[in-house]
Structure formats: C-alpha cells, structure tokens
Amino acid sequence: ILFRLNGTLLNPNYRNEIWSQDEEKKLVLCMKAYRDNVSPIVKAGNHFPDRASKYVSVKWNRSLNPKYTTRRFTPSEDAALLQAVQKAISSSDDDHHDSISTGDNNDKSDNISATMTSSMTGKWMSIAKQFPNREPRVLQNRWLDIVSDKNVLRKKFSDDFKANFAARKGVIGKIAAKTTTGVDEDNDEDDENAVGSDLGFNRRKYSRRRATKGHASALLSPDDLMVRVKKRRKVCDEQQPSNREITTTTVVHF
C-alpha cells in the first residue's frame, strides 16, 4: 500500500499533466547522459521530482525512445501482425489442450487458467520481438484496433460460443446459432414459441404482429375506416300496427 501511494498518481506530490517540450528535451538529454548506466530510466527519473517514475518510463518508451517508430502502420505490417497473433493463438490452443489432457480433475481449472495466462504473456513478448521498431504496448493497441474488422476473435471463439449456448432455448440460442452460420435455421413457429416462452410475450399477439409486419396494407381493412351507428326508433301506430322496434344502420365514412 505504501509503494502504491508513493509510486503512483495517488501521491499528491505527483502531477498528471501533459509533458511540455522543455520536459521532453530534458528527458532525452538525461537518457543520453545515463545511457551507460545499469538503469538509465531510474537515474533520469530523479530529475523529475514531480513525476512518478512509472510515467517517466512510459513517456520515454512510448513517445521519445528513438528505438521505436511512431509512424502509421502499413498494410504489410498489419498483415504480418495478424499472422503472428493467429500463429500464437494456434500454438497456445495446442498447449491448452495438452494441459487439459495431462492434468488431474481437481486441478483442471487451475491448470487451464495458469497455462493460458502464462502462455499468452510469453506469446506477446515473442510477437514483439518480430517487430523490433514497435513498442510492445503499441502493437497490442494496434491489434485491438484492427481485430474487429478482421474478425479474428470471432473465428477463434465462435465454435466455443456455439457449443455452450446454441443448445439453449430462446433468444440466446438464436444468437448463438446466427454467430457461426449467419442464418437462422429454425422456422417461424419455433421462433414464436421461443420468444413467447422466454420473454413472456403473448403468443397470439406476437404472431399477429409478425404476420402484419412490413405490410402497411394489411394493418387496416376497409371496415376500420367506417363507424357503424345504430339508431332505434318506434314506429307510430298509424304506420305499423305492432309496437316492435326497427333497427337501422347508418354508415359514416371518415
């Protein structure tokens, strides 16, 4: 707790503001002066008493270190990064399955989580070695930016998602089925039963709503555009001997 209080921005003596040009020049000069030192970043951090040592290191590695370039990623770099990550995921899956087959039943979950955590950490370090001019964190951020477009995560986890949720009834099962196939394989009757049972909708109302959806002409009929008014009157004795009532219908159009 004491280290976290003194070494992070929780310490009120440290400020979290944009670095000025003078501070950046000073940091570059310090790193040049202490380049032969065992820990040059620590030595340089002593010249910034109002900056946490962690953020001095972050500023140097992510912005000012001449070893890493800050130019835009090229399409060839994006393709190489995706290929490297996909290869690392495939190898980590093999290690993951090997750990499951050799582990005991009681320690299966611990082995799985420990293996995946350690393997992915090591894989990212090996991926970063393939891009020596890119800072490792920048590589991860770039991968996260393009992963949704390239659909890497969906390809990896679609089978697991379908296996876990496609057998469930209702909306979750429908989403799981569409995740891998993109087409709802069930018929309309199953959809009606699933939605009616899981979401509490009235099946009759739901089916009627679906039958008229997208057809404006089916929503209104000619009978909906008129009002039927019933009037009752008694016929005089001179006109009609009986005293019965005669009902007439008047149609009023809108």
TrEMBL record:
Matches recorded under InterPro entries: Homeodomain-like_sf, Myb-like_DNA-bd, SANT/Myb
Protein name: Myb-like domain-containing protein
A GO cellular-component term linked to this record: snRNA-activating protein complex
Keywords, sorted A to Z: DNA-binding, Nucleus, Transcription, Transcription regulation
One GO MF term: RNA polymerase II cis-regulatory region sequence-specific DNA binding
Organism, as annotated: Ditylum brightwellii
Segments of this protein annotated with the region Disordered: 90-114
Coiled-coil portions: none
Biased composition (Basic and acidic residues): 93-110
Domain Myb-like residue range list: 65-147
Pfam families: Myb_DNA-bind_6
Keyword Nucleus: yes
Taxonomy, superkingdom: Eukaryota
Gene Ontology annotations of biological process type: snRNA transcription by RNA polymerase II; snRNA transcription by RNA polymerase III
Transcription keyword on record: yes
